Amino acid sequence: MSNPVAAATGNVTNQAVQFQNNGAPSRQHYGSGVSCNGSTMTFSPFYMGNHTVPFDEEMSQRSYTVAENWGGQINFMFPLDRRGLAQCRRIAKRQEEKMRLDYELTRMLRCAELQQKGFMLAENTRVYTMCNDVVPIVEYKKNKQAAVKQYLKKTCTPKKGRKLPWKEQEYDCPTQPTKVNDSTN
Q1: How many domains does the chain have?
Q2: Distance from C-alpha of 49 to C-alpha of 70, rounded to nearest angstrom
Q3: pLDDT at residue 178, rounded to an integer
Q4: What is the full DSSP assignment across 33-88?
C-alpha cells in the first residue's frame, strides 16, 4: 500500500494603504469663521517596504524575503453645492471689504492722532505717503474754496453789473461739454 503525502507551504502578505482626506487642502479661510471649500486635486505617494530574514527552529537562515510596494493616489474633490459655495464666497467678499474698511479707518484715526500731536511721517521713507490723504475738514474746505476762487478768476469773467457788498462776485464761465463716463464698453 502506498501512502502518498504532499505538503505545500506559502506566505501571504496582505498590506493596505488607507487615505483619509477630510477636505482640508481645499478649504480657504477668510477670518471670523468664514471658510469656503473649493475644488482641489491632491496626490499622495506611498511606499511600504518589508525586508525579512526568516529563521527556522535551529536558527539557520533559509531565505531572504523582500516585499516593496510603491504607489500613489490622486484625489479630485469639488463641492457639489454650487449655490452654497457662491454664498460663502459672497460672505467672504463682504468680510474682506469689512477688514479693508477697518484698516482704512484705523489708519485714518492713527494719522489724525499723529497730526493732532504735531507729528508727521518723515519724507523719503516708505510710509511717508500713508497719511497724505488724511486732512482736517476745515483745511479741506479752505483749500477747496481757494481752488474754486482761483479757477473762477483764471477761466471765468466777472458778471457785469452792480455787485452788492454782502454778496459774492458772480462769474460767467465758458461751458464745456460734459464727458460721459461709460464703463459698460
Answers
A1: 2
A2: 8
A3: 57
A4: T-EEE--EEEEEEEEEEEEE--B-TT--B---EEEEEEEEEEEEE--S-HHHHHHH
Phi-psi region of 157 (alpha: psi -120 to 50; beta: other; left: phi over 0): beta
DSSP 24: G
Q: What domain range is 46 assigned to?
A: 24-81
Q: In whole angstroms, what is the distance from residue 185 CA to residue 115 CA?
A: 43
Length of the chain: 185
Cell 490723504 sits on residue:
133
Examine the domain organization and report whether 36 and 77 are in the same domain: yes
CA atoms of 144 and 154, how far apart (whole Å): 15
Q: Give me the amino acid identity at 112.
A: A
Mean pLDDT by 10 residues, the chain (185 residues): 66 60 67 81 81 68 74 81 87 92 94 91 90 85 86 83 77 71 49
